[in-house]
Amino acid sequence: MMHNAHGRTPLRLAVLAAAILAIGTTAGCAAGGKGKRDTAYVARDVDTLYMAAKDRLDKGDAKAAAALFDEVERQHPYSPWARRAQLMSAFSYYVARDYNKSVQAGQRFLSIHPGNKDAPYAYYLVALCYYEQIGDVTRDQKVTQQALTALNDVVRRYPTTQYATDAKLKIDLVNDHLAGKEMEIGRFYERSGKWLAATLRFRSVVEKYQQTSHTPEALYRLVEAYLSLGIPEEAQKSAAVLGANYPGSEWYQRAFKLMNAKAAGTTAT
Prior knowledge:
mainly alpha, Serine Threonine Protein Phosphatase 5, Tetratricopeptide repeat, 2 domains, 13 helices, elongated
């Protein structure tokens, strides 16, 4: 897991806490205006169940809270509380680290209430669930791509919200992670002498993830690969790009020495 790189930051916790507080407090008014006895009885029963779930969540028993919020929706699907319970269930599953159920609850909420005022939060929560599951660079990156898609969806749909602000930060981290995966595979091909396959991976980093921390090394690896393939002209181009953009980096110094050594060897021959 990438928790050291993208653990639950103060910004994210503040965003979640503020949003869930708004959901929880507005729910207390949901039963207002019910004058008939039968409706009042159902509303009181829903109120009891909902508050029991919220009490469990407040006490840190997120798994039990999620189950109780699910019960609110199951027992009273037509109550105003059901909508709020769906979102609170998704949040509770997230806190309990049951990300699959959190995603399911969040997506169910969005499918039923796509235009609701809490939809931005639901999209953000789904994105966080994928983000929390990103593994190290040696594992399959399907969930990483899901996180990137979901985070971009938040930014695209709600660009001026606090959710988009946090999503943009995480997009940078996800891209860095994906670039790291490409570098890991490229270095493997390089060690195996599969230079053409290696260049495709390193070029992918330079072209798709040029704003990440892996770009200087990718350019240096291209210099190595092109020289090994007998294409010094391409190696020189990569070295020039490296020098122009990262003149003080260790990778440029190594590329400079490598190109000079190659040139000296060619002259001697």
